[in-house]
Structures are given as structure tokens and as C-alpha cells.
Amino acid sequence: MSDLQIGLIALGVLLILLVLGFNWWQDRRVRRKMQSHFPTSEQDPLLGAGASSGAASGVTASTAAARREPGMGGDAPRAQSGQPAPVDPGSDADDTEEPDPACEVVIEINFAETVRGADLLPYMQSLRSVGRKPMRVFAETDQRRHRARIHAGESYGSMQLAVLLANRSGPLTAIEWSQAWARAQDMAERFDATIEGPDQQAVLEQGARLDDTCAALDTQVGLTLLLGAAQPAAEVLSVARDTGFVADGNRLAWPAENGVARFTLARADGAAFDAGMGGIERLYLLLDVPCSPADSRAFGRMVDVGRDLAARLRAELVDDQGKPLADGSETVIDERLQVLFGQLEQAGLPAGSERAQRVFA
To answer: Could you tell me the pTM of the whole model?
Structure first.
């Protein structure tokens, strides 16, 4: 190899090192600027009181020591709660729904000039989620009114993307955060805006802490209805509705007074009750504890409804091990669930609350 070739190779390596050094310096400068706008708190608001693990050991059909998808043979439906209604477009009142700093991280988009809602709306679909983490969009009008929805007839000076820090798919990942940041950058380029947000490492650490807290408290309790011979799905659905169940996606829900599901009923195959003409031989009752309102008879109530269904469907009600329920088991399990409800409250995740439904989804 000639001296000229060696010299060219050395020069190329030097240029690469210079480019990498310049990129590192730029990245460090940008991070410092963002941190000055969004200082990182030393204490996570969700963990202020601390969380205790092993809340209901030996009680549940599935206690999450590792992250997984909820439910039995499929995804557990997410309980629905009454969302505050957004105000009418042009109103002087602010929307009450806001980002939740305990479980969401916000990227701020500030427009150089106000942007019409009609121009923003076509891009809202791309801002619904990143990976397996949902995003919510908030905005401030040119009249400095807070909005939880973008309206075509209003103009906006800024927009906020609230990204969920953790759910049952695990904590927010670096890839998901990068995707959220890229979506914000795309909006900034389209509408001449600047973006600001917290440091990635701080975001990932906050998501990991939230995930650890939720993993220690994630509990579900299940029962099974064995119908013996297959029964027509239409007849099973009719009986369930007469008992008090209402539609909730592919499953049915037993609602509390505020509309949040106390527990759900599902086919063993995970299909909708009105899907196809096949019969049903097995049903699952599931109490998703963090997503269900606190109740002194949370499990006992599900047992009562399960026994009623069993009588109507000529079925056998068994526990998650396939054994008949032992006498007094409802009382024992409900007592243990009260401890878990208390720990959820202490951790800032009240059972059945909107925050709990977000992170335990």
C-alpha cells in the first residue's frame, strides 16, 4: 500500500471523528437547552408514598410479576369511565381534561403563527399512538383557551403531545419516545414551529419507575363457567344481558353505577358473542382489580353473578384451577383485595380511576 493511500485513509478516519465529535457537541447543547426548560424532579409524583409488592399473593388468577397482556386467552377490555365533555368550539371556558404528569410526558409544540384547526385535523390520526403507547393531543387557542380536542373552527398558538409512560406492554421505550419526538418534529416542520421536551434518559427512567410500581400491583381474578354441551351463542348472549351485562367490545361488562366495568364476561375463544353460528362451551369471568372500582365485595359480587349465570345456563362455576369454589372463599379473597385497593390508592392509582385505566391497559 502506497504512502498516498495510507494518507488518504488516515484523513478519512480523521474527518469521521470530527463529524462524530461535532454531532456529540450539538446533541449535548440541545439537551442542556431542553433541560433548562423542563427541569427533572428528583421525586416521581406517583411514588411519593411508596408501593408495596405482593399485595394479593395467592389470591389471583394472574399476578403480574412480569409484564404481559391482560386477560384470559385475549386482551382484557379497558373499562370505560365518564370522560369530561369538551367545551363547544369558540367557548371562553377551558376544557377540564389535561395531561397527567404522573403517567404522561409532554412534548410542547409552539407555532410561530397561529394555525387553523382545520389545517391540523388531517394529522391527528398520526398522533394517536407510538408503538404500544397511546398519545393524547391538547392545544391552546389564539385566545389562550385550553383544549382537549382540536376544532376545525378555532386557531391555535401551541399544541401538546402527552405520551403514556407505561402500560401493560411495559415502560415507554427509547424507540417509542423517538417516534413521538419524530412526530412532533414533523408537525414543527409543516407548521413552522419549535418543539421542547424533557431529556430522553429522564423520560425512560420515569417510565421504568412507573412500570415497576404497576407490576407490583397488577392483579386479576378469574372464574370459569363450564357449560357442558355447546349452547347457541345467541342464547348465551340473551341470558347474559338479562342478568345485567352490557356490551364492551368482544366481551360483556358488568357496570358499576358510574359506568366503569366491575368485571367482564368473555367467550373462551375470545370471539365476539355475536360472531358466527358456533356454540359456546366455556365462559370466563374476569375481575381486573386496578381497572375496577374499589368495592368491599368485588370478588363476592362476581361470584354471585357467576352463580346466577350458572343456574340459568345449566353450567358449573369453577375457579381458575378448575375446582369448585370453597365455602367462604369469597370473604377471604375480598379481604385480601381490600389491601390491594388501599395500596393502589397510596400509589396514586385509585382502582377504576382514569389514570389506573390508562396504565393498566
So the answer is: 0.74
Nearest to 250 by CA among 237, 232, 234, 266: 266
Q: What is the pLDDT of residues 119-147, one digit of tens each?
A: 999 999 999 999 999 999 999 999 999 99
Long-range contacts of 189-194, Cβ-Cβ distance < 8 Å, separation of 24 or more: 190/123, 191/111, 191/115, 191/119, 191/120, 192/111, 192/112, 192/113, 193/109, 193/110, 193/111, 193/112, 194/109, 194/110, 194/112
Give every CB contact of residue 83 below 8 A, 6+ residues apart in sequence: 97, 354
Look at residue 259 and give its three-state secondary structure. Answer: coil
d(CA 325, CA 310): 13
Q: Which three cell numbers stand for residue 228?
A: 357442558
Name the nearest CA neighbour of 352 among 221, 256, 250. Answer: 256
Structural domains in the chain?
92-215 (3.30.1400.10), 218-359 (3.30.1400.10)
β partners of residue 284: 224, 266
DSSP conformational letter for 273? T
For residue 225, count other CB atoms closer than 10 A to its CB: 22
Radius of gyration of the chain (CA): 26
**DSSP state, residue 98:** -
